[in-house]
Amino acid sequence: MLAPRTYEVKTFGCQMNVHDSERLRGSLEEAGYVEAVDDAPDVIVINTCAVRENADQKLYGHLGHLARTKREREGFQIAVGGCLAQKDRSTILEKAPWVDVVFGTHNLGSLPALLERSRHNGEAEVEILEALEVFPSTLPTKRESTYAGWVSISVGCNNTCTFCIVPSLRGKERDRRPGEILAEVQALVDDGAIEVTLLGQNVNSYGVEFGDRLAFGKLLRAAGEIDGLERIRFTSPHPAAFTDDVIDAMAETDAVMPQLHMPLQSGSDRVLRAMRRSYRSAKFLGILDRVRERIPHAAITTDIIVGFPGETEEDFAETLRVVEQARFASAFTFQYSIRPGTPAATMPDQVPKEVVQERFERLVALQDHISFDENRRQVGRTAEVLVSVGEGKKDAETHRLTGRAEDNRLVHFSPGGLTGADAPRPGDVVTVEITHAAPFHLIADAEPLGLRRTRAGDAWDRAQADSCGVPATASATAPGGPVSLGLPTLRVAG
Ligand code: SF4
User: Fold this and answer.
1) Which of 250, 368, 408, 478 is disulfide-compatible with 259, CB 3.0–4.6 A?
2) pLDDT digits (tens, 9 = 90+) for 255-286
3) By residue range, what is the domain housing residue 23?
């Protein structure tokens, strides 16, 4: 019997893309492919991102390296999908004619057929659809984590932020029906997950397609009823559409975690107007106040763009003012750079690179200072840490384990007496007292206060046993083990 063809999926960009990659893996495995365990896969799939800076340079650089492998290895195939593929289409083949398949954001499920067709016909296949034919969540999914999963509630976006390429690449917002979403959440829980992140470009407008403006709050409450689901997170909300019913649903649903990622983008009302973001800084800060009133320990994170066209020193000072007031736990900070195809790309008054750099450094310094301060306030608190895999890069050296607190803060903790058969497994929950703070993580070096072995930990054990044929004695420190990071991560750009 022929050995099954192996694949590797490389993902660039946001959580949407990471989740799409889970679907790509699912579709490939359903078609008989297996994930490569070495660095010589038969098929490499690059799931691209058009949002981040220099995305095309990165892609073409990467494809340049693969040209040699393509020449040297018989049967090796390269597929390029995702946002950049949706945007560049056949340009990809003009620039890198050794690519075998180009597919878009709307036809992830066609990948195995396109690979097969390309192999059979001996020529490249390009298939880009303008609209979604099957909601991506109905595709088979191979989840990266046993204890946490992502569920799409919508795709596309009806907003027109002038810096953003998403509306033109992902199309208008399409909402999944609540019943379908809840069924998927239930299926994840049945498989052992105890945490779910609901995903959409703009989760607060969820329901617009079927005419229910309160649909997102209702969805949070309904998900909170699912037995066994302990942690619900969501990303991303939009300040313009963030209504009090959602804050109520967050506060009144035990499983919704005390955490909110709320993109600010700029603190200047003038710049927000130019970005075509319809909230203003006062409204933004008002939302944060109301969230903190109802959920006092909520960790609020954000996205900020520095150097949007026309941003003056006064505008930037407004961003610093809002950042000071907002007391974000952390921030993704971006330097504005031109994205061809977006309205902002052709705006006059593009800010010189060195000015953007200098403002960016001031913003990062301020936010790092606030993050550290906010983290110091956690010292002495008790946190329930959901043990994860792959997030503690130095765990082996420091003899700690790593996981996420309820508010999604990263916690490295000493397992103390929890070793051997008592060691916590990924997916188990360890209660710790925070003993030290750093700008981007917390440390808990005292003896853990408790360990709760969960269904997710059992599922991790089962997955280990399935993948290597022996029951695992679990240790969350196993670097590069077969289960990789599944929790949504917060990254602080510096
Ligand atoms: S809300 Fe704005 S930034 Fe977010 S996806 Fe829609 S257009 Fe892009």
Assistant:
1) 408
2) 999 999 999 999 999 999 999 999 999 999 99
3) 6-127
